[in-house]
Amino acid sequence: MTRIHHTCVSWRRRLGLTAMAASIVVLALGSAASADPTAVTTPVIPGAATLPGPLVDPGKPAATMKLMTTKPDIVKAGAPIAFSATGLPANSDVTLVWMTSNIRWMLDPKPDSVDYLGRKVEKIAVSLGTSKTDAAGAFSMNVKTPVDFGGLHDVYAVVDGQQVAKGGLLIERTVTMSPKKGPVGTPITIHVVGLAAPTYESLGAVLYDNKFTGTVSGNMTRGETTFKLRAAGELGAHWIDFGDSSHNVPYLNLEQSPIPWVAGLRMKFTITKGTANLAPKTEWPVKVTPTLNQRTTLLNASLAPDSKATAALSAANGFVLSKSTITAAGLTPSAPVDLVWSTVVGNRVNCTGQCWSFVQVPLGRATAAADGSLSAGVTIPDGLGGWHVVQLMQAGKVMAQVPYFVKRNFVKAPKVVKAGTPFIVELRGVGWTQLDNTTAVTYDNAYMGYACGFNSNGYVRIQLFATGKPGIHLIDLYPLLYTQQPAYPYLQLGMVPFLSYRTDWPGLAAGYEIPAFRLAIKVVK
Amino acid sequence: MRRILLMLGAAVVLSAIAAPALAQSNADPAKTNVFLYADTVNGTRPVGAKPRPTGCTLTNYFARGEQVVYRVWGSEATTGDILSAENVKYAYVKIPGLPNLKLNWGAHGAVGNRVWFWANAFIVPKGYPLGTVMTQIVFKTENNTFGRYDYELQIVPNLALRKK
Question: Which ipTM did the prediction report?
């Protein structure tokens, strides 16, 4: 392995390099709100339902459309249902067409950031099967209700491309909770089926003893999700409301809305004596293969056009100060190589123009071997989290670059705090895009605010205050979609704890792995 | 030559400006000779559903048992005449699975504040399919011109207030 001359780079030179990077090498890539929406392909989410059938042409309405009986027509996903109709063309092949949707998250991935732009709903038709009408033009078919988005679904009997009969049903939203009792700090798993596709039926919002905890979606998982809270508070009964939310907080009088079927469900959890395991815990999202290649990295356009060099890192992600090995081939033989970390500096606060810029941080210097290869160790800088690139530069040109994702990590929090005194929770590796620049904070399941890591270069000190009776109090940090600076209108899920982040999070498609942190303090007199 | 090029350029620009307008006018002119406006309100006499707190409010969401009231206004494009009993041969709403709903011309509202329009109502049958129903409003005038308006209803379950 080639020795890195990191320590040989004097502070003057390093400062000079950084300053030069900041002043000259800075790329004029703006942060203005000029969205270029990209509907990102949903990655394969482990355990998520797939389309209930093959995509088909929904057909055209027949001149005289009959009614198709659907029994029952208010059902739970997976329940048996029967369709029947009469008066249809005799002895004809019938396709049972289920109208549903595909939903994709919308992002604006740019070299210097990623903006969150909501979601895109595409109406689609799938076949639930085929049958045949009898000599009298009657047909019937029994199927299982698809595990699919909840709410209303149109169903058509299609003969020769014509919708000859129309049925419909409502998939009810179901919510289950487990366990129903346990000591303070007990993880509570809530499973939801039947979040719908239309905006006002697509989210759930959670109240814990009337305190807003966060919001839940199921866009990537066809309306199904499983998320966790922890039991907080004193001994006895506590109430968890899973209600509907149009955009982020609960919609409290849905019974009077046009969509009363998504009105909330209330569940009781009883806190018993004792204490659950309260050691700090990091809960990562599910592992997926990202579908979006353009992340927050420098574009390939920055590469020297005549370079044929290739490079790879021994690990594609890690925490700040992680060690990794970069290997390369095709470099200019026996010539010096500058190893450079590409990141940004700036912030979004009161941003009205160019508010952050790329800078290059030296990682060290090496020399390519006589065959143009390189193998060198690098240490990931203690800075912003998220997607970066390690660049290999020769004679001022970027010969190759490799993306690296810096994960955020919990650093420190006190275990015992005197009531009525402040305390601090520390994180590192918080990023700067709208997907990863903040973390949402709840105290005993009550959303209290967010903390941002951009201006502090990824290092976050959350200023908290010990309240409540002596005993255990819970602090949970959740991913949050930052929808300010730039702000786009009518976005769902902005600025609130995103409880279903493990399986439905726009950043998953772009390789952003943002965890929740489960912390606890003991408040004493 | 320069002048020809300028004219050519102007023509290109004009055609580019005109193109969107032409693109919007995608219907056959012969079929757009009747203009219709339609809406629906909830009737005050539902059968099999609880009356809403306020009647005659604009909505296209109806529960089974509720009363769907169509209200339609129209005019003839060529003459500008308001469509009324004097110049309309027939007017109805075609609803999948149900008999055509004849529209009637009449005055509505309190005395002194009456408004004339085409209207009629139907009760959503108990077993009517849930979901989207595309209805068609059809007019034929004495001048043998036609107007058609596709109007979407959402049929929703008749849920009692849920017990939490």
Answer: 0.82
